[in-house]
Amino acid sequence: MDSVWDGVCPANPIEEQPTIGLIGMGAMGRMYAKHLSKAGWKKIHVCDLPGKYEGLKKEYTDVSGITVLPDGHSVSRSSDFIVYSVEAEFIERVVAQYGPSTKMNAIVAGQTSVKAPEKAAFEKHLPPDTHIVSCHSLHGPGVSPVGQPLVLIQHRAPPEALHLVENILRSFGSRYVYLSYEEHDLVTANTQAVTHAAFLSMGTAWAAMKEYPWEQGLYVGGIETAKVNITLRIYSNAWHVYAGLAILNPSAKIQIDQFAESATELFKLMLQGGAEGGEQRFRERVEWARQIVFGEDEKDGKKRTPILLSEDVLDRFSLGRTPASPAVPLPSSSTPSPTNSQNNANSHLSLLAMVDCWAHLKIQPFLHLALAATPIFRLFLGVAEHLFLSPTMLDSAIHSALYDTWHRRDDLEFVVAARGWSQCVSFGGFDLYHRRFEETRVFFEGRFEEAGVLGSEMIKAIMESEKEREARESRS
Q1: pTM for the full model?
Q2: Do 304 and 296 meet the contact criterion of CB atoms below 8 Å apart?
Q3: What SS3 state is found at 175?
Q4: Are 347 and 422 in contact (CB under 8 A)?
Q5: What is the per-residue pLDDT across 399-418, written as a single tens digit (0 to 9) for each?
Q6: Per-residue pLDDT for 5 more than 80?
Q7: How far apart are CA 307 and CA 29, in angstroms?
Q8: Element (H, E) at 243
Q9: Distance between CA 198 and CA 221 in Å, rounded?
Q10: How many C-beta atoms lie closer than 10 Å to residue 33's C-beta?
Q11: Segment Disordered: which positions (predicted)?
Q12: Helix, strand, coil share (%) of the chain residues, nearest 5
């Protein structure tokens, strides 16, 4: 590869800069275009479907450095670094169409969430003289890339090709994580599959009940705030963001299936209550999962600083408000939870199932936290950590799961939803996934704007707190 790009940066004269090509101008393609233009790169060639050419050209008329071209052939022939920002479902078809037009010695990347199909498409359709250095920003388009993990995959390329990609993307302010294609898919499954399944199931359950539970005074404040805001955040995004990872990543399928199994088995024990040793079996299973997932902290003899902000801080981002008294009558057992009348203690079945799933699959989530954690994974892991490392809160959840009945219908709907999503993924049908996602999405549509603002503020607060925590731990 020509060394002319050594040390190149946006401050170089335009004739000394590489041409950057973006094929696909969806949410992530636009995010890349925005940050590259803002950084000062002066030759950014972009395209989308041919039918969107005129509208895209009008939209970017006055945007510095960006030139809209008619199609992927134009971008491929003219660009030194090309990023395919298309859905994983369609990557093979798009690369087959435009890959043969790739400029000699160009570097090609894909911004897909699951890399196995991308790798196969690049190896099959790109000319042998091109280089492959792929990428993946592990966050959504609405999250600032600063400090977030950005995966780089040096697959078929010399070091100087990797260095050029590093130079081009450095303006994002992201943290580079170097993985292989196979490592990427395993890590993304471990950090996203179960968390996505949990929130998708929560949303589907609430839609099936046809109510916003936080408006009933039942799931408000504290860690419930995180659950609600992230659920709405996921359903406000495009369905294909989650479908590709779930359906095309074999590791993700295994995890989603185990999550549904964990939720089902725990719910069966909950229904048994204290009869015939049911409480002991339930407690033993929860404790076993706690030891597997969170026990390392105890073995090392030094405590991690918790991820989650205080529940009082999280209350600022709540869509609902805790009433002075329960909004609806809450039937309970003859041995009611001591906190039920004040905080509506519930089973936290989604969290119990998530940790139980990780334990059964021997996934150590904290190993991936420093490596390639998305903001949603980081936050939900923090919520689980908060529950499982608080003896009082965990005991309250166990007691409520076994003896309180007011949340049983909610938990039943959650289990049905989790099994439904598992079956949907196992069938491997994108159309079915799309339909299931959209049917739930419609129910929450009117709440996305408010939840989007609050959710972004909550994630920003968590990320700032995490940066401070990581800085303290690196100094100790």
Answers
A1: 0.81
A2: no
A3: strand
A4: no
A5: 999 999 988 999 999 999 99
A6: no
A7: 31
A8: helix 240-248
A9: 19
A10: 23
A11: 324-343
A12: 65, 10, 30
